Amino acid sequence: MSEYSVVECTLAEHGEAILAILNDAIVNSTALYDYQPRTLENMESWFAAKAAGDFPVKGLVDASGELLGFASYGNFRAFPAYKYTVEHSIYVRDDHRGKGLGRVLLSLVVEAATAQEKHAIIGCIDAENAGSIALHEKAGFQLVGTFPQVGFKFDRWLDVVFYQLTLATPANPVGA
Predict the structure, then answer these.
(1) End-to-end CA separation in angstroms for the chain
(2) Range of 80's domain?
(3) Which own/partner pairs from 39-48 qualify as long-range (CB within 8 Å, at least 24 positions apart)?
(4) What's 96's domain CATH number?
(5) Total tally of structural domains belonging to the chain
(6) Most exposed of 25, 80, 146, 147 (fewest Cβ within 10 Å)?
(7) CB-based burial of residue 13 (10 Å sphere; 0-12 exposed, 13-18 middle, 19+ buried)?
(8) Is 155 contained in some domain?
(9) Distance between CA atoms of 42 and 37, rounded to whole angstroms?
(10) Distance, CA of 45 to CA of 51 (rounded, Å)
(11) Which of 69, 175, 55, 171 is nearest to 113 (CA)?
């Protein structure tokens, strides 16, 4: 396991590192179904949306302050009845994958969602991403759906799987 500290990520301190991690995922993997690398302006609006929604951006940094990975969540769907459900994202820098950091980041997301009294956490995973699927299953997430051929990247159709963790919160949910 890598040595790390947990931080709350900010645009000023971590925006460029998050951008680099995301762009690596866009260009080299099916972990993110974008085609074009993002820009720093994209990160500005991304952080603004996280702040507006009171969504955490948790990071792991090494002793020199280098970002090793990050995790966050946002709205699952943009309708009021989904207010207790979030969809999370976890990304680990390519040279630190396989060292247990994804597990730590996932636990941070679960802790934050529980503290914010969310009820369900959804992970949308490329169906061929065995490592991410195993990570989620070990953390208690359950497969709740498969969507075949919904993405097209690298000249092939991609399937996604949805994994869900249902939390005991909120104690007193409120509807409309």
Answers:
(1) 45
(2) 5-166
(3) 40/15, 40/16, 43/11, 43/15, 43/16, 43/18, 43/19, 44/11, 44/15, 47/10, 47/11, 47/15
(4) 3.40.630.30
(5) 1
(6) 80
(7) middle
(8) yes
(9) 10
(10) 10
(11) 55
Structure tokens at 95: 């040279």
- Could you read off the pLDDT of 34-64 as tens digits, one per residue? 999 999 999 999 999 999 999 999 999 999 9
- The answer to whether residues 143 and 162 touch, using CB atoms and an 8 Å cutoff, is yes
Amino acid at 104: V
> Is 72 in contact with 86 (CB distance < 8 Å)?
no
* 125: β partners: 161
2 confidence band (pLDDT: 50, 70, 90):
low
Looking at this protein, which amino acid is placed at residue 118?
A: K
Burial class (CB in 10 A: 0-12, 13-18, 19+), 6: exposed
Q: How crowded is the C-beta side of 123, counted as CA atoms within 13 Å? A: 29
pTM of the model: 0.95
Using DSSP's 3-state secondary structure scheme, residue 140 falls into coil
Q: What token pair was written down for 122?
A: 């959804």
* Domain contains 39: yes
Is the residue at 174 inside a domain?
A: no
For residue 163, give both structure tokens: 């994994």
